[in-house]
Amino acid sequence: MRTTKLTGTEGNVRGLSTVTFDGKYAVRNISIVESKKGGLFVSMPSYKFKELDPNGKSQFKDIAYPVTKEFREMLYGKIMESYKEEQNLEFTV
């Protein structure tokens, strides 16, 4: 797992992470985002739909995502740990 803090950028993305699973499969561009309320959260890579939702807002669909709650909590926890410590972490599934 490699996480990079972003500084001096516009918008609310504060970091980017790449997670490699068992040296065989990698997910890039996992974002660490600052919410409007000030907290940080993990956002998986996604793509934007051409159609807007009924309220006229853009819709996004995750490209890769954790399937279970337990794995999501573990993965997001490790990503945030890597971000806060500004270091690469070993990640084993």
How would you describe this protein?
- The protein has one helix at 69-85; strands spanning 2-5, 13-21, 25-34, 40-43, 46-52, 58-62.
- It has 93 residues and is an alpha+beta fold.
- Strands 1-2-3-4 form a 4-stranded antiparallel beta sheet, covered by helices on one side.
- It is globular, with a radius of gyration of 14 Å.
- The model has no long low-confidence stretch (mean pLDDT 90).
Short description:
This protein has 1 helix and 6 strands. By secondary structure, it is of the alpha+beta class.
List the defining traits of the structure above.
1 helix, four-stranded antiparallel sheet, 93 residues
The first-to-last residue Cα distance is 12 Å
Q: In percent, how helical is the residue content?
A: 10-25%
Task: Please state the overall shape, judged from the principal axes of the Cα atoms.
Answer: globular
- SSE succession: EEEEEEH
Number of helices: 1
Detail the poorly predicted runs. none
Largest sheet: 4 strands, antiparallel
Q: What is the beta-strand fraction?
A: 35-45%
| Spatial sequence of strands, sheet with the most strands | 1-2-3-4
Mean pLDDT: 90
Question: What is the tally of beta strands?
Answer: 6
Helix/strand/pairing class, anyone? alpha+beta
Specify Rg, calculated over alpha carbons. Answer: 14 Å
